[in-house]
Amino acid sequence: MAEQEHQQASEQVNELAQKMEEVILGEDGLPLSKKALKKREKELEKEKKKQERLAREAEERAAREAAEVDHGVDNYGRSAINMSREKTETKWTALGELTAEMAGQLVNVQARVQGSRPVSGKMCFLVLREGVETAQAVLSVDADTVSKKMVKFATSIPNESIVSITAQVVKPDVPVESCTVGTVELQVRKVFVTSEVKIPLPFALEDAMHSEEACARDATLNRVGLDTRLNNRTMDLRTITNNAIFKIQAAVCQLFREYLTNEGATEIHTPKIISTASEGGSNVFKITYFKGAAYLAQSPQLYKQACIAADFGKVYEIAPVFRAEDSNTQRHLTEYVGLDLECSFREHYHEVMNMIGSMFVYIFKNLELRWARELEIVRRQYPSEPIKFDEQPLRLEYKDAVALLRAHGEEMGDFDDMTTPQEKTLGRLVREKYGTDFYMLDKFPLSVRPFYTMPDPTDARYSNSYDFFLRGQEIMSGAQRVHDADMLKERIAAHGIPLESLEHYIRAFELGCPPHAGGGVGLERVVMFYLGINNIRQTSLFPRDPKRIDP
Question: What is the pTM of this model?
Fold first, then answer.
């Protein structure tokens, strides 16, 4: 009996719980009224019918698309991985080769999709990019070649993917001002993805190409910070501006080689792992070398001079230079590309200094003539005036520069080394007085130069040394070197450097060496100052500084 009563009680509890679950509560936590329940039922029924209608429309649309003949099916898609299976006779055209005279022609191009813009289900635009050039392509549904599905596919291609396109060149009604190739447009006939982006992009490439002026005018524009760009350097280097910057950097190296080769110089390749600090001092990277220690070369100085002692006459090198300076400024790197040269002379070190001046003039003139397109692209994002320079570069002596600075309120001693702000001030004063951005500063105080610098013959407080300046900042340091072995030993001792650490270097001069002079140029600095860019990291391919060793 008790068992039966217990069971009945349990059933009643369960029935009551079920009824409570069926009670629908309002926002106030109380059960809904009959009127509210009826309203809710109507809303649920309405939503149900809406979802059924949407599902039916989706099925009908899918059925129509399935039944629709895709007349463009062979003209788009994803290509198989290029494993060099075949060679064809396809003629490819670079975007930069497109001209209005080619209107009506069919061309084949390979480029990245920088962006896409659908206009409707029947039309979309693509911005293509190849190197420093961009061009606009358009897909528009027609009866024979381009289908709706083809347009839909094109708009779905992830930005920065690489495509192969066959298109007809047309002349637009108005130039496409947003592209570097603005006189033509490409009417797409075929589009195949050959390399597709698989991950989200770290930033939009267009955002990395805004000028400071554009950002100042339009606060809605997105900026990409330098650290973000350098952390994603491969992506960053794809901008047409960066592409142009490093074409210009390569051009400086090419022109450096051209000039010196024409002067009869020999290109050399010196060791970068050395047994002693090449410049003296502590700004060297010490490395483990098997069971001992070695250093990364601060410059090829000792080996350049050895080649002069070996009767090479004139030598030059383009190679990395390592400086362990804990400087986090906008113009310092711990590894940079050095353009070094050393030349023997007959009578006076000015023979070499003036040749170097002429070399820079050659570089500057040819950059403007032969790389005008790249300069135009860089100056769109980083506006700057072309540098002013003379065929015969201005030469100032250090004491005259000190006097000029003092006359304009700068306080400095006769033999003080110039600070960076003083160098910039001097550059401004020189431009105002002499109308040039490029000049040579000669006869530096001996106390601020390396041990191998030749003293001035008339005043031993000065030296036969020089720096070259561009837009008020140093791009090259050089001098006549001490070529007499006995004098060299005296200079080494005066700098507190153990003679035995430079034994091999000294021996070259004990064997007899002609008088010579030379210098070292920082490639990244030349490009930075020439283009008027504010940070040297932007002119270094993968920059290294005290806080950055990746990527």
Answer: 0.86
